[in-house]
Design goal:
With 388 residues, the chain is α+β, with helices and mostly antiparallel strands. The protein is built from 8 helices and 21 strands. It has 3 domains: 133 residues, Ubiquitin-like (UB roll) (Roll); 45 residues, Membrane-bound Lytic Murein Transglycosylase D, Chain A (Roll); 113 residues, L,D-transpeptidase catalytic domain-like. It has a 5-stranded mixed β-sheet with strand order 15-14-13-21-16, with no helix packed on it. It has a 4-stranded mixed β-sheet with strand order 17-18-19-20. The longest helix has 44 residues. It is elongated and about 120 Å long.
């Protein structure tokens, strides 16, 4: 056998380097492959997290609106769109009226409702949180009151009426809108309205005037405006049913004009100099005096028996063209032409009822808005207010 020469040192070194280079390349290549696989897995996991962390679980709905597997943003859009057409049932227990949630100023509380959705479990139906624009709610309640309110009727015996106590309903919505609206039904707080006595305060003179019936007016209060009895108007107009008068109807009134109390009929002026106001709880009238002379008088509505108007001598201490008013069980946003004369008691405009001439308030002195404006512009801060 021929003898093979032993490789030289240089040849052996080159071969060793080649082997080591191949092994190093193999190791690095394997390491890179492992890193690539791990990286792809990590990217896949991150992508999966990103795709799932902002999605609603399966079979989740909000007040019946299906939002399963949508993004939170899309879910909120669906809920908001559905709420625009959602209806609310108003009820006085015996009757019902349907209005749109949006017309009542009701909106979805997005932040609070989204928090509930993010914590939702699969298959859960969520009750959303609501917010209420109380001015819009008040406007809607005033509008629907034309259908809801039942005017009192005179007769033997007289029949009391019923009306929405709007301040109370608004306070409930302000305190817990979500709880009040959760079942889609809002029970209206109703109060009883007594029928005014048909007492004549001045004798018929033979002169007549024409009164056009306005929205919300009833015969008994029209009679009091002119200082005549209901029966006077009924007889003169040959009305067969005093409860059935309509907006736009022309009534002949056996009086020359609106009733203005004479100096003998009005309470005495508190002051002989300067301006002063007297509010008569008994007569449900407010009187303006200047330098001891009566210059203006109109029907008003003072506090009901359970929330009477405070009596005594006071002074107007602040005036607001519009002010939010609240107290135990009531809330009223942006009450017009408010003049406070003692703590939270004030003289102000009122557009949530038209029952002036009888006690209706939580203690304040209610006036029609334009009448309140007259007193607001006439009286200054410091004007004496005497309530008797």
């Amino acid at each position: 056998m021929a003898h093979q020469p032993y490789p030289s040192y240089r040849a052996r070194t080159k071969a060793k380097a080649a082997n080591e280079g191949w092994l190093t390349g193999l190791f690095i290549g394997g390491l890179l492959a492992v890193i690539a696989v791990v990286g792809m897995a990590a990217l896949g996991f991150v992508a999966l997290v990103l795709l799932t962390q902002d999605r609603v679980p399966a079979n989740v709905s909000v007040d019946g609106v299906e939002i399963s597997s949508t993004s939170f943003e899309e879910a909120m859009q669906r809920i908001e769109t559905a709420s625009q057409e959602q209806t609310l049932t108003l009820t006085d227990v015996q009757r019902q009226w349907e209005v749109r949630l949006s017309d009542m100023g009701v909106r979805i509380d997005e932040a609070a409702t989204r928090d509930l959705i993010e914590q939702a479990r699969e298959g859960q139906n969520i009750q959303p949180y609501y917010t209420v624009n109380l001015v819009e709610a008040q406007n809607m309640l005033v509008q629907i009151s034309e259908q809801v309110n039942i005017p009192p009727a005179q007769g033997e015996p007289p029949r009391p009426g019923r009306m929405i106590e709007i301040p109370s309903v608004l306070d409930r919505l302000r305190t817990d809108a979500t709880g009040e609206l959760a079942d889609g039904i809002l029970e209206l707080t109703m109060i009883e309205v007594e029928s005014p006595l048909a007492e004549s305060v001045s004798e018929y003179t033979g002169a007549t005037t024409v009164h056009v019936v306005e929205k919300g007016q009833e015969l008994a209060l029209i009679a009091r405006q002119y200082g005549v009895t209901t029966s006077d108007i009924v007889t003169l107009n040959e009305i067969t049913n005093p409860d059935l008068i309509f907006v736009g109807q022309e009534l002949r009134i056996p009086a020359a004009s609106l009733y203005e109390p004479s100096a003998n009929e009005a309470p005495p002026a508190p002051l002989t100099q300067g301006k002063s106001i007297v509010v008569s709880v008994e007569k449900q009238r407010i009187y303006a005096y200047e330098d001891g002379k009566l210059v203006y008088s109109r029907l008003t509505s003072t506090g009901r028996a359970e929330t009477p108007t405070v009596k005594g001598d006071f002074n107007i201490y602040v005036k607001y063209e519009a002010d939010d008013m609240s107290g135990p069980g009531y809330f009223l946003p942006q009450v017009p032409y408010t003049m406070y004369f003692y703590k939270g008691y004030g003289i102000h405009g009122t557009y949530w009822h038209n029952s002036f001439g009888r006690p209706m308030s939580h203690g304040c002195v209610n006036l029609p808005v334009e009448e309140a404006r007259w007193f607001f512009e006439w009286a200054e801060v410091g004007t004496l207010v005497r309530v008797i």
